[in-house]
Amino acid sequence: MMGYIPVNLANLIVSFGGLVILTRLLDDAQFGRYALVMVSIQMVHTLLFTWMEAAMERYHARAVREGQLENLLKTLYTLGAIFSTLGLVLFLTIVYFLPIGQDMKTVLSFALASTCLQTTMRMGFEAHKAADRVTRYSTLYSAQLMLSFTIGILLILLTPLREAGPFVGLIIGNAIVLLIDLPFMIKRMKGGSFQKKETKNFVLYGLPICFSLVLESALSSSDRFIIAYLLTDADVGQYSAGYGLANRAIDVIFIWIGLAVTPHLVRTLEGSGLKECLKELKSYGAILLLVTMPAAAGLGLVAQPMSLLLGPDVREVGGQIIPWIVGAGVINGMISYYIQRAFMLGGKTIMLPVAMISPMILNIILNFALLPKFGIMGAVYATLISYGFGVVIAFLMARRYFPLPLPWEAFLKCSLGCAAMAAGVLALPLSEQINPVLEVVIKGGVGASIYCTIVYMTNAADCRSIIRDMTSRFSRKTVEV
Asked: How many domains does the chain have?
């Protein structure tokens, strides 16, 4: 986890920096269109390309064990090049004939080109994670994020590209990193051959993950399209800004921990067996709760001053929805980064889409029912209800195919810590005229102190052992130096 800190920091900078800067450089309608296109290309990439990335993640350790790594890399990189090229031609043709304005066609064309280029780059990233090349992965991934982000902002400022600028930045950033990483990976596939028979296994394993992720994306993003249909692009921009600020803050933590642990779980299952894997899996779930629950509670407690990060056009709505969305973010994160690991490790990825269908349908129905009555808050209520339903369905289904442990003890102890933290922060006698930055610092410091005290006293998620291990390793390194 410590090795992935650069990735986490880059994600935080790009996520929050993007919201802070884009909501100021673009008006709420432009930001709404940008958000719709971003959601659309994420779904396209997931549906058509993610199965290859998933296969790299799952089969890398087995290929190393069987001496087939060169063949695995050769096969997946060849598939990536073929699908990216065909996909780009298909996408540009479709965009050309779409009955939309030229400005939107330009944005979509750059966005779709960026996602095709990302496929080959991400293949290398998955290989580095699976091979435990943490430093290389962190360096390249962070560089790609920061380059794309910086170039995209400059293009908005210096050119008439507006909402298309970030996508052109993605193309340039991806191309630079790919030029650095591709020669490295070509050396490792030298002597390998394309394995046509293995392609079928990759497809059977990866496509259900793609469909599941698309349904998951629809669950979390379809409300934007419904808001655009029932309300306006400006409402989409306001909702997306607040949702992004809250959800991304939680999602970054899940990604950080998942980056480190998921490859480790696969290697443990392949090398040490089911019993040891379950032990590691339960510890992983407990740590997720230990870190994400207080983060969500803390963000909810400072929602109003935190909303000042957003542009003035979207700030008011953002402050209203942040406390709700951070809670939904924890639920969704546990589905995506914990429960779904059971389907992957159990080799039952075909059931992943099945687990996501009913929550997705429920979310769409609730949005159409609640948006006319409650406005943007209707989408928030629909998100919370459908996520709550989804976590129950996903867990019950996962337990049928893999003995997924549920870290109830950690959940209860972390809940106690969050409740104590909230009580302490709400009891603070702060003036309404207090500086927003100072308010966040005071509430954050008090809340963190209370939470850390409670979880240490109760040993939530075996945090005392974690602290002892980290202290011991740091002491040994200090002595060696």
From this structure: 2
